[in-house]
Design a protein that fits this description.
It contains nine helices and no strands. By secondary structure, the protein is mainly α. The mean pLDDT is 76.
Length: 206
């Protein structure tokens, strides 16, 4: 996984980083916790500019968040919940979780968008209630951009600062990164299998 990500970043450059981060926000095949540090590694080798790496990662993350924002804005709360009821098993989102995200947004407003970008479990979902609530686009972009830039910069900086240990770190990052992806797949399967019990928690007890 280490070699695949760094090879992809080396070949595709900034557009590839933006694409990976966009996909991570839409349906996370590879988490940003792997993408951006390894992009930072690549930048440390002199093949990319570290500032532009951060910019590319931020743009990709914002594009993914914007897609979910418009989904929430165009569909509305009832249709999003209906979508979760019909297809939530494969999306791994229950109507109750949509309600929880919406409630969190109502209580914390714009701050929920900013801090939500720093939380792996919330990063994607928080854009939906922002759209449902009709948060203004400029404000959404401001808070999403700030949170995404901070998160991306932290991850990229971590990878960049380890440049002197590149070869040594590569030896253990590769199996660790592969293990993380395997765990993500296992988590997704678990969410699919347990969807009914999470959607109807009271009924599952009888």
């Amino acid at each position: 996984m280490f070699d695949w990500i760094t090879g992809f970043v080396e070949q595709s450059g900034y557009p590839g980083i933006a694409l990976l981060m966009f996909l991570e926000n839409v349906f996370p095949p590879i988490p940003s916790e792997l993408i951006m540090p390894l992009a930072g590694f690549t930048a440390a080798q002199g093949q990319l500019n570290v500032v532009l790496v951060i910019v590319a990662g931020t743009i990709g993350a914002m594009a993914g968040a914007l897609m979910w924002y418009y989904a929430g804005r165009m569909l509305g709360a009832d249709r999003v919940r209906s979508l979760a009821e019909r297809h939530g098993r494969w999306m791994t989102i229950t109507p109750a979780e949509v309600d929880q995200a919406s409630d969190w947004f109502r209580r914390h407003g714009a701050n929920a968008v900013f801090f939500g970008r720093l939380a792996p479990a919330v990063r994607t979902l928080i854009s939906v209630p922002a759209g449902i609530a009709g948060m203004s686009l400029p404000k959404f972009l401001l808070y999403t951009g700030a949170g995404s830039a901070l998160w991306t910069a932290l991850l990229t900086g971590a990878g960049y600062l380890l440049r002197d240990q590149y070869q040594r770190v590569a030896g253990w990052v590769d199996p660790v990164s592969t293990g993380i992806v395997v765990l993500l797949v296992a988590w997704y399967v678990y969410r699919v299998v347990t969807f009914n019990s999470r959607q109807h928690p009271k009924e599952s007890r009888h």
